[in-house]
Amino acid sequence: MVMQYPAPANENDAKDDIVRAAAELFMNYGYSATSIDAIAEKLGATKGRIYHYYRSKSQIFFDIQRAAMTRLFEEVDPIARARLQPAEKLPLMAKAHLSLLIRDMPIQKVAVQGLEKYLFEAEGFRHAKTLAEINQLRDDYEQLFAEVIDAGTREGVFVKGSPRILTKPFFGAMNWATVWYRPRRTQSEDDIEMICSSLVDFAMRGLLVDKGGLHEAGG
User: Hey, what domains does the chain have and what are their CATH numbers?
Assistant: First the structure.
């Protein structure tokens, strides 16, 4: 049975409906195997409704990327600007990041995994400008974490190393949740909280200086 979505009140709501429906299909079946027809069917709408807002599937794909980054910035940027010590701030940022990944899995999973795959597809070169825009958004988001890591390194609480390089394994530990995480019907908010806390603790252990202060990145 096809879910019937109510008619959206405005263009932003309409696009959001399309983005969410497409993200679920991209996540489950992949970009190449998902058609505009499938997205329309998922929405319980006509194909014309999709084409009223989007000229192509690739435009929807890129709006998924933008939506994911916008939501991450909205959650994490206020924490990054807060007057907290790096060792307090970074785990709060990481927890906000991971919590959104889990609660908004289709859009975030496509954003985390989809862009890299898309770069290798035959039509990727046609969208070089848009790909560069999306990559810049991702770099700007990563920079929020790099700046906090850099501040912690200068204070001696985080290991020594290039902040931008240190963000890679840090994000890797959290973003891997998009590969293995599967929501369960009986899963509670406490369960999600435990998953987030456990993964953030694990990621933080890779950055924190040990008691002897001798731990350096790669050493």
Answer: 1-55 (1.10.10.60), 58-205 (1.10.357.10)
What's the one-letter identity of residue 154? R
**Tally of CA atoms within 13 A in the half-sphere of 212 that contains its CB:** 3
pTM for the full model? Answer: 0.84
pLDDT digits (tens, 9 = 90+) for 161-185: 999 999 999 999 999 998 888 877 7
Q: By three-state DSSP, how is residue 208 classified? A: strand
Distance CA 168, CA 188 (A): 30
**Euclidean distance between the first and the last CA atom of the chain, given in angstroms as a whole number:** 56
In contact, 3 and 90? CB cutoff 8 Å? no
The torsion defined by the Cα of 30, 94, 202 and 172, in degrees rounded to 10, comes to: 40
